[in-house]
Design a protein that fits this description.
The chain is of the alpha/beta class and about 350 residues long. Helix content is about 35%, strand content about 15%. The chain binds 2-acetamido-2-deoxy-beta-D-glucopyranose (NAG) (3 copies).
Length: about 350
């Protein structure tokens, strides 16, 4: 987004900014329609493809991770990138190039280490302290201006570790997503209906997913991303919705936006596992270390209570975890053991691990 616009919106009220941005997206969309000679109903292409005639998979996907320049985000990106490089070249992997979409609006010192695309954050105050609202805006800007050779995109997050080479899980125009147990559109009917009115269809149209992890055709994400941003901002603006959804608001934003475009995701439980709840890595593709792992020395989970042994990313808000973290005591699930081993392998091999990204 050109700087002129940013300067302009900074001076005006946040509410105007929402409509200003919305107008901007309308302009983007229009431009797109004109350039690609598309009709105004992009969802139709997706519905048409609901037959089984989709092309085979095996097409490469671009790995895109949205991030900030905070040390907390940086060290996670470095670990993720380490495993990306290892897994990308293994047989059975459809991974293509990698981009860190940095939504801090300025470069940082990891630019040399990994391919990074800098985008603007939302105008001041618009995220209301909820930083992940920047994600849809980051994707909109990146898709608009970057050259992406792959036809598909994996939307990933910094706390993802790739555990095994993974194929393109999307099938033609059907994206693949991970079903989160706590995303339950049908149980939030009153709220959801504000953004997905009855005439759009049943609430079961809305997948129990967030934007990540998702593998999706680039052209479909281009359609969804502005709506995702639009819906997320409107959800955040609405106090009742903000309260009901809390930190998962932007996930609902993506789920609703994709339904508005008539896009259904193939739900893949094996897309990712989340220690300490998932006990074994098995055949999953990503370890997501969003939950703290707390155990007694007897190997008992003490979730919610600081354990005698613990690994929690939030212990390292201002700088990276040290190299060679101690392994969990006997009795702790394999998923947690593997997570710590993989963190240790990455940190042992990344140059200047403990000095480069401190705040
Ligand atoms: C991958 O990204 C690099 C930049 O890091 C670029 O030079 C290269 O052309 C890209 N390759 C493909 C196949 O997109
Ligand atoms: C954003 O939401 C508003 C309100 O529903 C709608 O009028 C507008 O068309 C939407 N814009 C985009 C780009 O989705
Ligand atoms: C890692 O720590 C263990 C003790 O927890 C120690 O035995 C081992 O030598 C250390 N490894 C490295 C490479 O520092």
């Amino acid at each position: 987004m050109p700087t002129i616009e940013r300067k302009h919106v900074r001076r005006v009220s946040p509410l105007f900014v929402v409509f200003g941005l919305v107008f901007l997206f309308a302009a983007y969309n229009l431009l797109h329609m004109v350039m690609h000679n598309k009709g105004p109903n992009p969802g139709a292409a997706v519905t048409d493809a609901l037959g089984m005639s989709d092309p085979v998979t095996g097409l490469r996907y671009h790995v895109a991770v949205t991030a900030t320049d905070a040390p907390y985000s940086q060290w996670q990106c470095r670990i993720m990138y380490y495993w990306y490089k290892k897994v990308r070249d293994m047989p059975g992997s459809d991974m293509g190039n990698f981009t860190r979409i940095l939504h801090s609006g300025r470069t940082d010192h990891l630019m040399e280490e990994m391919h990074t695309f800098v985008v603007d954050p939302l105008p001041d105050g618009l995220d209301r302290g909820y930083i992940v609202l920047n994600r849809p805006w980051a994707f909109v800007q990146w898709l608009e201006s970057a050259t992406i050779e792959e036809e598909y995109i994996l939307m990933a997050e910094p706390d993802h570790i790739f555990v095994s080479p993974f194929p393109n899980l999307a099938k033609g125009s059907h994206p693949a997503g991970y079903p989160f147990f706590y995303i339950k559109p049908a149980e939030k009917a009153k709220i959801i209906r504000k953004f997905y009115p009855k005439e759009k269809g049943p609430l079961t149209d809305i997948d129990p997913i967030g934007n990540s992890p998702v593998i999706i055709q680039k052209s479909i994400l281009e359609e969804i991303a502005p709506t995702w941003m639009n819906v997320s901002l409107r959800m955040k603006e609405d106090p009742e919705t903000d309260k009901a959804f809390g930190w998962v608001l932007e996930m609902y934003g993506y789920a609703v936006a994709s339904a508005l475009h008539k896009v259904k995701h193939i739900l893949r439980k094996d897309f990712m596992l989340q220690p300490p709840w998932d006990l074994e890595v098995g055949k999953s593709f990503i370890i997501h270390y969003t939950y703290g792992c707390d155990y007694s020395m007897k190997g008992e989970l003490t979730y919610g209570k600081i354990g005698e042994w613990r690994f929690d990313k939030r212990s390292y808000l201002s700088g990276p975890p040290p190299r060679n973290l101690s392994l969990p005591p006997p009795g702790v699930p394999e998923s947690v053991v593997q997570l710590v081993k993989m963190v240790n392998e990455a940190t042992a091999n990344i140059p200047k691990w403990e000095t480069l990204n401190r705040s």
